[in-house]
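BUG: 3D viewer hangs when loading the predicted structure for this chain

Environment: internal workstation, default settings.
Expected: structure renders.
Actual: progress bar stalls at 90%.

Input used:
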Amino acid sequence: MKNNEVINRHKRRWYEGESQSDESLNQAIENFNSLVDNFEAPSVHKIQYTLPLNYRTDIQFDENVVISDASRYEQIKDLKLMHVKLTSEINSGSLIYWHNDWWLVSNEEHNSVVSHRTYIITRCGISINIKYNGVVYNYPIAINNLTMYSDGSKELVNLTISSAKYSIQIVENEITNSIDVGTRFLIRERAFEVSLIDDFTVDNIRTFTVCETVLNSLDDVENNVAHNSNSDLEDVNNPNLKISGEDIILLGDTVEYVLYGTNAWELEYNNMLVIVSNNPGKCKVKCNVDTDYIGKTVKLMACDRNGNIIDTKNITIGGLF
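Structure tokens produced before the viewer hung:
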């Protein structure tokens, strides 16, 4: 009797268009989601993360993830695998905060069973300060020593200086995109200069080859800020975070608005517009159909995790087309 029930259930699923492979995949997705939601394994951890391409590391979101060693046979403490839900906002170029350290999310691994996504994460043991338009920004970096087959020093006429060389990985955003060949950093009171830039190997991550150089009298060693001529401008406020999306919405239409770093979206009280999708970083707004609404304006507000308004946008209601 039970066998007949199983056979009939599979027949129904076949008629409904769900194969046994689809059924197995859906069950695997459900099992993984249950694992992370209910902390069903010691490898499940709650982490904080940033969104890719966002220049603000202080805007973070919480999520449960699975973290495992990068290799069964070779455990590398600064390299781990992170497994996230298929619906996760975490992606290459995110930063996660776990075990009192920042970790950089880089390459996505390909799983044989697509029940979740897997990324390589690298511990960022150091951070650097970047001065941009007079404002200092701090970013964690993943660093590798490239000083091989030498003693790490260079002989000049009357001086011996260090010639250490490192590879640095940093998140891509409007601040780090300002870094060019010749840009200088200070790392633990030592000066380094960018000699090579790779901004295409890993999505949303910039990789620099830096060589040690001499300190400049204008370097702010105390605050770990190197002098660069293009950053020596008067202090200004942080670059404005602006909501992107259409200024005009048509009757019956749905429009998406984006502002990375946003935790929630709100509309001022009205009967004309409604938020139909409210997600971190983006939302969708639909306009109800009533010709009396044409020409009226409603304010959309993007808020951070504490409810503070990051930016607002006035949306004007247009006609039918």
